[in-house]
Amino acid sequence: MSWRDLERRAAALDRLATRERTAGNLAEEATLRRRLLVDLDEVGVLDAVVEPPAGLPVVAGYHRAASRLGHYLRSVERARFNPDAAPTYLLGAPVSVDWFRIPSPTPGHLSDLEWLAYLENVLTSADPSGDRGEIFVHIGDGWWTLHWRTDDGVHPAVVSAGTGEAEVATGA
Q1: What φ, ψ does residue 92 adopt, rounded to 5°?
Q2: Each residue of 15-32: pLDDT tens digit?
Q3: What angle separates helix 57-73 from helix 3-16, to the nearest 10 degrees?
Q4: What angle do CA 60, 61, 65 make, to 5 degrees?
Q5: pTM for the complete prediction?
Q6: What is the separation of C-alpha 6 from the centre of its chain, rounded to a whole number of angstroms?
Q7: Residues whose CB is less than 8 angstroms from the CB of residue 118 and which lie 6 or more positions away in sequence, other chains included
Q8: What is the pLDDT of residues 95-105, one digit of tens each?
Q9: Which of 20, 51, 95, 153 is most deeply packed, by most CB within 10 A?
């Protein structure tokens, strides 16, 4: 597996996420996402140990997002909203690396990390089943939609959140 192959596969996955949301398309995306994440992990991109070569913008985006996810998993905000959360590795974490690759809006009264920690708490408290779904969240004077999926095929992870007016296209 070459760096260029990883870049090609990562870019292809992003394009696939823009297709019609049919069961078959979602299943294909899930399979390709799992394989890509495992391969990115094997070369050290998700550990933020290995910096991808220049000229690979999508893989570099995964690297930056993985670094930010690692920071979040060790953050005081996460500990405050999820005091029983154990340290976790990025693959299988309760937050998708895509949360940091494709930004979601945040309620004005919370910081970005507080909002994510709150959403993680909502997701883990709900104990969802299946491979993807939505949870409606009431906060302040509005309703939000938390989109989740199992990037690793097993563990639910927060992917995105949005208000009814401004949903983010994430493949959730």
Answers
A1: 95, 0
A2: 998 888 888 889 999 999
A3: 80
A4: 120
A5: 0.90
A6: 18
A7: 81, 110, 139
A8: 999 999 998 99
A9: 95
